[in-house]
Amino acid sequence: MNRTLYDKIWDSHFVGTRSDGNSLLYIDLQLLHEVTSPQAFEGLQMAKRPLWRVGANLATPDHNVPTESRELGMAGIKDLISLEQVETLNENCKNFNVQQFDILDKRQGIVHVVGPEQGATMPGMTIVCGDSHTSTHGAFASLAQGIGTSEVEHVMATQCLVQNKAKNFEVRVDGLLEEGVFAKDVALAIIGALGTAGATGHTIEYRGDAISALSMEGRMTLCNMSIEAGARAGLVAVDDCTLEYVRGRPFAPKGELWLRALESWKDLYSDDGAHFDNTLSLQAGNIEPQVTWGTSPEMVCGITSSVPDPMAISDPVVSESTRLALGYMGLEAGTPITDIELDQIFIGSCTNARIEDLRVAAHVVSGKSVAKKIKRALVVPGSGLVKQQAEEEGLAKIFVDAGFEWRAAGCSMCLGMNPDQLGEKEHCASTSNRNFEGRQGHKGRTHLVSPAMAAAAAVAGRFVDVRSFF
Amino acid sequence: MEAFVLHTGFAVPLDRANVDTDQIIPKQYLKSIKRTGFGDYLFDSWRFLDSGEIGMTPNERRINRDFVLNEAKYQGASILLARDNFACGSSREHAVWALQEYGFKVVIAPSFADIFYTNCFKNGLLPVSLSEQEVDALFVCAKQDKRIEVDLEKQCVSVEDQSEFYTFEIAENLKKKMLSGMDDIALTLSQSELIERFEAMHRENQPWLFRE
Ligand code: SF4
After folding, report:
1. Residue of minimum CA distance from atom 6 in ligand 1
2. Is A294's Cβ below 8 Å from some Cβ in B?
3. Which value does ipTM take for this structure?
């Protein structure tokens, strides 16, 4: 039978059917962070259950960690409740013997940046994490899914996930992207076309020459946002680009084992004629730099467009949510996107805080300055190692010279669990993945964009078409 | 987990599509390391006008009188009526815990986000999906203070004084789990040999996945 990539990974990890009829799927790697793991560890402790396989777990704190005064380590966490959460992760990792990159470790960072960077993410694996953006790791042709805390505990105790198989969704992007248009724009354009629930119940596989042409960083950005279209997981087939990225990383196999691994990874693609339950097809050349104007990632349009008019939308539910979103965002229908003025800029998050993202943003701001009216422009690298590399490459200096603040690694203003937050009614050009109400701070107004667009917006003080910078 | 068989109660209609889990329980409350204490912060930025912090109680907050959950007639409602794609976004199970602690036993909507849907079954909160028209009809009943009954065994939702009823689909295995309230982990571990056998074969085929 012709199988999709998802079918193949499912089949190779299918343990069997549980007595109640549910399927058990074997999990190769569980990534842990401080927010969704404490209740799971506590559950294990209360039931006196051990971890099924200690070596299948890897932890790092990311959501709560402050991005300033990192050298202070734990003492730098001023919020006592955040501190308790990070301390709890430390204790749990110690008690259960789980490998952790702690707050002072150079390898600490956003869990979805750290996994691939360490080579812990490899092709053909099953990966879970109590975090919906686990879909990021699908860029390596691995089935990576976000799960709830009860499921985290279940995987800890059994190494299995109880799951019913999802359907297959093919998203094709063919042709060439214009200069100045990036994976983030592709992701947003896809979500705009599918809607935030368009792929619910499905695993997406991204295919087509525009996808193959993306770097691993770009593929990660794309897969990262699969959840924003409702899919738990997104996948890209293995090719040389994947293998080159994994080769030589600390957790990757070496020597003889590497050769064996290559052999086993070589058919991680969908067979010709494999069945997809749904397909969406886009032309890369039609995709403009994207900007979200509302409070859901599907509320998005090209840089040359304007904010929509709820009165002109016939579907009453869509019209009403558009009206509510514009009210929250403080935007008038018909406003050109390039007229939206900004207060803050955030370059960071598991979507766009890898070295390539920082290189592109630095390219745009190089020799220029952040506009006077921007109250704060942050660059938050995805991991300590990305930070170090960016410093070595001189990117940090470009940002600082332009007027950006250069911070330590973490989730930061992607969700503002740490002190980095938007003020009320402040508009932010953000490279993160969610523009939900209050996501970046109480009553804050988020616009999702690519790192290049965020950088250009920092310079101009409002949105501009970054294609003119390339 | 408590078993769910049948529930009767009043419903509160939340007329918004794509309600995300950041709205159900905002991030500042996720700092807790406990499974409890989230009910007071359910829909925090809609229920209250001020920005809340962990530890605050509802009576020290500024209540948003315009939000449907705060209307006097819906106090004590135990069924939440919602629109399409309910609870999309983050995987936070805290969203389920907050809904339950507030007093909800059932959420009825035309569709749910996947992770939330799974999380519900781990905690005994029943997500019921009905067609848009059926949900519309229930919105009307909720506003008329009609009692609604949700029978999982029969997969049926009915309204007091009405002969009409709505049946819903649910995967047989999820239904069974909900009806029995059994411990998921214990159930899986009762078949640990199956897992061990698979693991041994998997280790043989892909030894690089086993660094220990
Ligand atoms: S960067 Fe944002 S989306 Fe990514 S894991 Fe952190 S909080 Fe979640």
Report:
1. A411
2. no
3. 0.94
